[in-house]
Design a protein that fits this description.
Layout (H helix, E strand, L loop, with lengths): L10 E8 L6 E10 L4 E10 L5 H12 L6 E5 L2 E2 L3 E2 L2 H8 L3 E5 L7 H7 L4 H10 L3 E4 L5 E7 L3 H11 L7 H18 L9 H6 L1
Length: 205
């Protein structure tokens, strides 16, 4: 797919997550943003912390959006919810969209961490290895990020990131998705308010 990164009509779906330390589910948020940085849609989803359902969760979010005008997916990391790994190639094939997975730090890999966290890590290690290596990209802001892609090359990935990044290293669709995910995670984990006691019952207490 040819992406015209500088065009206002381009729409990116930025996806980020948030979860509490003892949570069993992660809140995913997706923000649809046009090339002129106007927000054009929001969707939420769930993924299992420590599970293997991240790819399916994102595909379900796309289905609920029911949009034909989204041009690409921007992921804030493709290893979510404590090693719940997104299959970037499968996500691109099933959605029919290019996928750009973005991270921000140097890393020597996480195979040792996966082995330490899971007694039978074989399938998860294979999912991680299928992701392949990351490619470094220097943005127009001067910040360096690391990307994995499916359906677009490094040059196009850099143009897309530059067009959606105002400052620093985080593109706006991902930044807003992260804010939405944190807000949604806080609501879902908040205790329910106590039921109000009627004045008559309170008077008999």
């Amino acid at each position: 797919m040819v992406l015209h990164a500088g065009k206002k009509a381009i729409r990116a779906l930025g996806i980020a997550e948030s979860f509490a330390p003892r949570a069993t589910q992660s809140t995913l948020a997706g923000v649809v943003m046009r090339g002129d940085l106007l927000v054009d849609g929001v969707v939420f989803g769930r993924a299992t912390v420590g599970g293997e359902d991240a790819t399916g969760a994102i595909l379900s979010m796309l289905k609920r959006l029911s949009r034909k005008d989204v041009n690409l997916i921007l992921l804030s990391g493709c290893i979510l919810s404590r090693y719940n790994i997104v299959d970037v190639d499968l996500l691109s094939r099933e959605s029919g969209l290019p996928v750009l997975c973005l991270t921000y730090k140097e890393s020597s890999g996480i195979e040792a961490a996966i082995r330490a966290h899971f007694p039978h890590p074989g399938g998860r290690l294979e999912s991680y290895r299928r992701l392949g290596g990351r490619t470094s990209v220097t943005l127009h802001t001067g910040k360096k990020v690391f990307v994995r892609t499916a359906g677009l090359d490094k040059r196009t990935a850099r143009r897309v990131l530059d067009s959606f990044t105002l400052q620093g290293s985080v593109p706006e669709p991902v930044r807003l998705a992260a804010l939405a995910a944190r807000a949604g995670s806080g609501l879902s984990s908040a205790p329910r308010p106590a039921r109000r006691t009627s004045a008559r019952r309170a008077s008999r207490a």
